[in-house]
Amino acid sequence: MAFQHGKNSYLSVDGTVISSYTDSCSLDRSIDTSETTAFGDDDRTYIAGLRSSTFTASGHWDATGDGVLIGADDGATVAFVYGPEGNDSGDVQYSGNAILTSYNQQSGVGDKVAWSASFQITGSVTRGTV
């Protein structure tokens, strides 16, 4: 088993690589369930429902990265590619389309100017390799 270090991760939003402005990324996937328990059952039973996915990212503010995220702030669907291993041949990547649901910029007198963003994925997430 080959473990990976997060420093090699890759993120592209709306066709622009923003990895150099990003220091954290999370792809979250869930599946709804519907209860099918009936009278007389001693244990609850369920069936799988619809999948839902989101991703969040954060990092250090830069005018170029900010331009990409502000450009996605129009309610339109944007493409994303997330590579937890990186962007080299054979690396696993997840891709799909998403809607920017929040974008935050924060600055503190003793810290870097930072940003964070959340995306709701619309449709399926594709797992492939570079």
Could you walk me through the main structural features you see in this protein, from its secondary elements to its overall organization?
The protein has 130 residues and is mainly β. It has one domain: Hcp1-like (Pnp Oxidase, Chain A, Roll), CATH 2.30.110. It has one helix spanning 63-71, and strands spanning 10-13, 16-17, 22-35, 46-60, 77-83, 92-106, 114-129. A seven-stranded antiparallel β-sheet has the order 2-1-5-6-7-4-3. It is globular and about 60 Å long. It starts with 9 loop residues before the first strand and ends with a strand. The mean pLDDT is 95.
Number of strands: 7
What is the terminal separation in angstroms?
A: 19 Å
Overall number of structural domains: 1
Structural class label: mainly beta
- Measured by DSSP, the beta-strand proportion falls in over 45%
Residues in helix, %: under 10%
Which H/E pattern describes the elements? Answer: EEEEHEEE
Question: What is the CATH architecture assignment?
Answer: Roll
Q: Would you tell me which CATH topology applies?
A: Pnp Oxidase, Chain A
Shape: globular
Low-confidence stretches: none
Q: How would you characterize the largest beta sheet? A: 7 strands, antiparallel
CATH class: Mainly Beta
- Please identify which CATH superfamily we are dealing with: Hcp1-like
Q: Provide the spatial order of strands within the biggest beta sheet.
A: 2-1-5-6-7-4-3
Output the number of helix runs. Answer: 1
